[in-house]
Write a structure and sequence with these properties.
By secondary structure, the protein is mostly helical. It has 10 helices and no strands. It is 73% helix and 0% strand. The termini are far apart.
């Protein structure tokens, strides 16, 4: 991989994982195990500051997520969270491993989509959308603005008032220079109902949304 390629990956891969959405299925045992992966991901992402520690803990969590997938074959929810953890791992990996991990995350999420494209109230579509706009396009990677927008809009259609769905569509719009629309979706994200079952994720994502609004304000004043 060239120095230019690795630079592109460094710039585009951070803050890639979505966090998905947490909704009960018809299997309470599976839901509890998926929620443990969910909450541990949030703790690592938002509370572990050292990048090396983050990567090591994410690698361990990815193995735990894979074990849940193996325990519940044919279910989309565990695959979604294995894909999310792998996406976050890609964001924290060395430049030599980033694209490989991002490709693995995409393949895992595509398996989840094939099982149930509407799983987790749009979480699968949203996670794929984020990957497709964060990863560089050809010839450096598999990124695609068209696929990203399609997946992100599908996620919004399922969860129009959701924190993540609106936050990531706003982020996508900012990446395309549509700051006015991005601001509107960030406002919708911050109006989402708080999730008492996922307090670390909820607080962390809202902080990111407010930071993004602050960035838009600074750009508008220039």
């Amino acid at each position: 991989m060239s120095r230019f390629s690795t630079l592109c990956l460094c710039l585009l891969l951070p803050v890639m994982a979505t966090g998905g959405t947490a909704h009960a299925s018809n299997n309470p045992q599976m839901d509890a195990q998926v929620m443990r992966i969910n909450n541990e991901w949030a703790r690592i992402k938002y509370q572990v500051r050292d990048k090396g520690d983050q990567y090591a803990q994410l690698d361990k969590l990815a193995q735990q997520a894979a074990a849940v997938v193996a325990k519940y074959p044919g279910r989309a929810e565990p695959l979604l969270w294995q894909g999310i953890v792998t996406s976050e791992e890609a964001a924290q990996a060395s430049v030599f491993r980033q694209l490989g991990l991002a490709s693995s995350a995409r393949d895992i999420l595509e398996k989840a989509r094939a099982i149930d494209p509407r799983a987790a109230n749009g979480g699968v579509a949203m996670s794929l959308g984020v990957l497709y706009y964060k990863v560089p396009g050809f010839p450096l990677g598999f990124g695609s603005a068209g696929k990203a927008q399609s997946y992100l809009k599908a996620a919004l259609a399922q969860d129009p008032d959701g924190l993540d769905a609106n936050f990531f569509y706003a982020d996508y719009l900012m990446s395309k220079g549509d700051d006015a629309s991005a601001r509107a979706y960030l406002a919708r994200a911050l109006k989402a109902a708080p999730d008492a079952n996922r307090p670390i994720w909820d607080a962390g994502r809202r902080a990111e949304a407010r930071a993004m609004l602050g960035k838009l304000d600074r750009q508008a004043r220039r």
